[in-house]
Amino acid sequence: MFKFLKGVVGGSGAGLKDLPYNIGDPYPSAWGSWNHFRGTSKDDGSPVSIFALSGNNAQDGHLAAGRNGVKRLRTVRHPNILSFLHSTEVETNDGSTSKVTIYIVTEPVMPLSDKIKELGLKATQRDEYFALGLHQITKAVSFLNNDCKLVHGNVCLASVVVTPTLDWKLHAFDVLSEFDGSNESASGPMLPFEWLVGTQYKPMEMVKSDWVAVRKSPPWAIDSWGLGCLIYELFSGSKLGKTEELRNTVGIPKSLLPDYQRLLSSMPSRRLNTSKLLENGEYFQNKLVDTIHFMDILNLKDSVEKDTFFRKLPNVAEQLPREIVLKKILPLLASSLEFGSAVAPALTALLKMGSWLSAEDFKVKVLPTIVKLFASNDRAIRVSLLQHVDQFGESMSGQIVDEQVYPHVATGFADTSAFLRELTLKSMLVLAPKLSQRTLSGSLLKYLSKLQVDEEPAIRTNTTILLGNIATYLNEGTRKRVLINAFTVRALRDTFPPARGAGIVALCATSTTYDDTEIATRILPNIVVLTIDHDSEVRAKAFQAVEQFLQILKQNYEKTNAGETGATGGASAIPETAGLIGWAMSSLTLKGKPLDQASLASSSSAPSLASAVSNATTTATEAPSVKASHHTRSNSDFTDQPAPPSPTSTDGWGDIENDINEGNESDKDGWDLDPIDEPKPAPALSNIQAAQKRPVSSRPPATSSRPKVNTAKATAKLEDDDLWGSLAAPPPATTSRPLNLKKAVQSDDEDPWAAIAAPPPTTRAKPLSSGRGRGAKPAAPKLGAQRINRTSSGM
C-alpha cells in the first residue's frame, strides 16, 4: 500500500496531484482498513496526518463506510475529536482493474498505542496520564451521546489518536450513526456499518442483532460498553481478544473499578452514562488533570486564583511527567502569557520549564513568547522579564535584541519608579553585548549619562559599574570620549562614597584602554585627591589604584628605555580581573530606612535597590557634615587643579547626550550639559556661590593647559589684589594658603579662579592717565601745575 501511495504522489494518479499535501512514512497501526501516514503541507511544510482507504470498486462496502466517516468527521467539531482539514477521492487504473482511494487530511496525530510505548511511563505518572486521556475521551463520547444524539459504535484503543501536545482525540467515525430510539417502527440495523466492529468490542445486544433492545436502550449504552473496553486495553497493556477478558480487573485502579463495572453492565439500561463518569472525583482529581483543567478555563479565574496557581506551578511541574510538562503544559502556559490571560508569576514557571528544553527547542517554543512580552504595558510583567533576563538573554540574537527588545526595555530608564530604573540598568549587562554600535553610542550612553546624575545613589553607583563592564563593547573613539569623563568628572566627585569607590574600580578595570598621557594627566590627578577622602574604603581603593597606574607608567617607561615597542596600555602590568565588575551596592552594610517600593513587586524580589537606597538615605540624613565636606571638595579641591591637556575630547559625554556642542564653558564637566543637582551648600559657601552667579567679563574659552603661577612677583597688599573682593566670604579656618600668592596682573586665560571669581571692587581708583577710547590725547598739564601751586601756597 505504501509503494502504491508513493507512486500516486509521484504523478501516476489522476487527481492526487492537486492535493496540497505530501505523503510521508506510515505508522505501524491504524483503525480498521485505514492506513495512517505522516504528511506535510506543500505550502508551509507544517506537519499533518493523512489517512487512506482503498477499495476495488466504487461500490465497495468499506468505501461506503469510509465516505460516512469523512462526512461525519467534517461536520462534528469538538476539542477532543480529531480536527478535519481536507479530503479527496482518487480513482486509479492498473491494467484491467481500477482502485478507488479516499484520503483524509487531519491535524498531526499518532496512534495511542504507539505513543504509550514511546513515553514509557510507569507507576503513578502513567496512571495520571491515563486519567487525563480518559477524561478527554469521555468528554468526547459524552458530547456525541448526550448532546448530538449520535452513537460512535466502536470506542476502543485503536479509535484514539494523540496530538503532539499529548492530547487524546477520538476518530474512526465510519460506524457513527444517529440514535433513532424514538422510531419504534424501524426494524433494520440502527448502525448500518456495524459489521466493521470486531465481535469482542460489541455488547451482547449488538452480537444478537437485537436492534429493538438497542433502540429501547439509552443513547450511551453502546459507547459506554466501548469505553469499558478502552479502559481494559489501557491498563492491561494489550488489545482485547475476546469479550470474556473484560472480567479480568487486576490492572484496573481501585478508584475506577466500580465505574468500570457499571460501564460493562449486561443490562443496557443500567450502564453508566458517560457524563456521570466525569464526576468520579476520586480518580480524575490528580495534579496533572487539575493543572491542565485550570489552564483550560484560565479566563474564568480571578486574579487571586491565577496568582496562587502560577506561584505553585514551578514546584508542581517538577512532580509531573517531564514529557507531558514540555509538550502539554508549556505550550498552554506560553499561549496564556502571549494573549494576556496569565499573570506575571507565570513567567517564572515558563522559564523554569524552558530550562528543561534543549537550546534549539527553547528558541522555538519559549523565546518568541518572551520577545512579545517585552511589548507588554503590564509593569509586573516588565519587572519579571528584567529580573530573569539572565536566563534567556543569551538565547536571543543581536538583531532581535536591537530591533524588538531594546526599544521597549529603554523606556524603563526614564520610569518614575527607581526600582524599575535599576532593573533596566542591570539588564543592560546581558543585553548590551548584543546591541549594535549605533544603538550603544546613539541611545544607551545617553540614558546612562542621565542615570549617572539620578536622584538615587544606588543607581548612580551601578551606572558607573555598568559602564566599566560594557566598555569593551564600545568602539575606540567612544571609549576615548566617554570613559575618563564619566569616571573622573562624575563618579569620583559624587557625594555618595560607594559611587566614588565605583569610579575608582571602573577606572582600574578599564586601565588597558588608556595611554600614558591620559593616565598621567587626567586619571592620576583625580585619584590622588581621594587618598584623603573621608571614607576609609574610598581611600583604600584610591591607594590601590594609584599604585596600579604608577606601575603601568613605570613598566612602560622601562620598555621605552629598553627600546621595546609595544602598546602604551598597561595590559601586562595589571593582573587580569576575574570576570565582570560586581554591582557595587551589594556589599553595603550601612543601615537606614528602606525606600518604599510599593506596587511593583513583592518585597522579596528587590533586595538590591532597597538596601542601596537605604544606605543612600542614611548617608544623606545621619552624616550631613560628611556630605558638606564632599560638596566643598567638588567645588574647590577639584577646581583648584584644572584638566591638563589631553588628545581626547573634554566634552565626550556632552557630545553624546546633547550632540556635538563646541565652545562649552570651561566649568562644564564634559559629561553633559544638564546641571547636576548638588546638595544644599554649607552656609560658608553661600556668598561664594552668589559671587559665581554675578556677571563676569567675557573671555575666550579656557584652555585645558595647566597655568604657570609665578609667586615671585606677588604684590604686597592683600586688599588691592584679592580676587574675591569685598563680597567674598571669609576663608575657612582650615585653609592655610593665602590668597595673595597670585600675580598682580593676570589675564583670564592664566587665572584658574576666573570662572568663579567675583568682579573687582568698583571703588578701586583708576589711573587718570588711562584714556576713554578717544585716541592718545594726553591730559592737560595745567591741571597738575595748579594743584602743585595750591599745595605750595598753602605751605
UniProtKB/TrEMBL annotation:
What segments bear the compositional bias annotation Low complexity? 613-623, 753-767
Which residue range or ranges hold the Protein kinase domain? 2-284
Gene3D superfamilies with a match to the protein in the record: Leucine-rich Repeat Variant, Phosphorylase Kinase, domain 1, Transferase(Phosphotransferase) domain 1
Q: Where is the composition biased (Acidic residues)?
A: 654-664
Q: Which domain of life is it from?
A: Eukaryota
Q: Where is this region: Disordered?
A: 613-795
Q: Where are the HEAT repeats?
A: 523-561
InterPro entries from the xrefs? ARM-like (IPR011989), ARM-type_fold (IPR016024), CIK-Related_Protein (IPR051177), HEAT_type_2 (IPR021133), Kinase-like_dom_sf (IPR011009), Prot_kinase_dom (IPR000719)
Q: Which PANTHER family match?
A: N-TERMINAL KINASE-LIKE PROTEIN, SCY1-RELATED S/T PROTEIN KINASE-LIKE
What is the protein name for this chain? Protein kinase domain-containing protein
Q: Which organism is it from?
A: Eruca vesicaria subsp. sativa (Garden rocket)
Q: Species lineage, top-down?
A: Eukaryota, Viridiplantae, Streptophyta, Embryophyta, Tracheophyta
